[in-house]
Write a structure and sequence with these properties.
Blueprint: H1 22-33, H2 44-55, E1 60-64, H3 67-77, E2 85-89, H4 95-102, E3 106-110, H5 121-127, E4 132-135, H6 147-157, E5 162-164, E6 172-173, E7 176-177, E8 184-188, E9 201-205, H7 208-218, H8 242-274, E10 280-281, E11 295-299, H9 305-317, E12 322-324, H10 345-350, H11 353-361, E13 362-366, H12 374-390
Parallel strand pairs: 2-3, 2-4, 5-8
Antiparallel strand pairs: 1-9, 6-7, 8-9, 10-11, 11-13, 12-13
Organism: Frankia alni (strain DSM 45986 / CECT 9034 / ACN14a)
Family: Belongs to the DegT/DnrJ/EryC1 family.
Keywords: Pyridoxal phosphate
Length: about 400
Amino acid sequence: MGTMSGVVRRAPELPAWPQYSDEERAGLIRALEQGQWWRMGGSEVDSFEREFADYHGADYALAVTNGTHALELALQVLGVGPGTEVIVPAFTFISSSQAAQRLGAVAVPVDVDLDTYCIDPAAAAAAVTPRTKAIMPVHMAGQVSDMDALAKLSADTGVPLIQDAAHAHGAQWQGRKVGELGSVAAFSFQNGKLMTAGEGGAVTFPDSELHEIAFLRHSCGRPRTDRRYFHQTSGSNFRLNEFSASVLRAQLGRLAGQIDTREQRWPVLAEALSAIPGVVPQSRDERCDRNPHYMAMFRLPGFSEQRRNAVVDALVERGLPAFAAFRAIYRSNGFWETGAPAESVDDIARRCPNTEALSADGVWLHHRTLLGSEEQMHEVAAVVADTLAAQ
């Protein structure tokens, strides 16, 4: 069944997202019946933090309200604030830059690699100034950024890294988990993420000092045992609730199996997509030896943004969970409201040609696509092929 017969090929019935089972139900009841529903009196958040840290090879984890707050808190702990700069990839969800800008810092966009879609270490190096307080690689779609080159850049300049790991739960770089790479990492549990409670986030830390500072700042500067309102630092309320944590504990329990499935399906889908003229899937740096595949991403080189958008709309009409790639952060009005560099849009665009291309011709499919069967991967590719043929 295809366009030749006049019948539009429909996508297969792919697994739903979010996924849940009796583990989530049991967790919610457990949280309900413990009698204390916030982290200072309950046990779910504490337990989740230990389990999440262990899974990612980190010494400490702190659960927070959402992924954007995770980034903001991590940056603040590293000293980001007014008068400082944070280097971010130009191709990312805008929370990466807004977290820095909310703290009064200037977000400096740099270009990404056209194969992996991750930050270009050479572009990051060229952007370092005496005001640079952090460099934020984003592990795009689960593909870990070049942490070897970035670690060397950090060591050479003294500028710390903060990993935006919103797409990278369970990822590994040369056998090392995200929490074992020596830098702070921030995760998201928003509804579409690899594990979710609707919203939520976490920050992992390589040492107790950073973790303790973060704990204070995520709880209005108040120590755990304070009874007299002695707030030691400024801060906000980024505390996660017990119900969300109970769901996340269950979600974490099935993450590894889901990653195994996606790792098996992506090569099948990528090969099938590669066989379609004009389709170029995201490449994989083999040093990333475990990729959770938050997105199944590909490019349509030569397509305008309008033509790409028409393809995405047609894919959605055919039943695929398809999306346009992120817009370059400097091409959104929100980027320029506060904490923008002293450059024009055109200035930044000229030094970010890869971001310009990806913003115009990039497409992604939600990771639930990769939880389908091997046969369904071929069916998905056939839908993409038919859709492009009809354009």
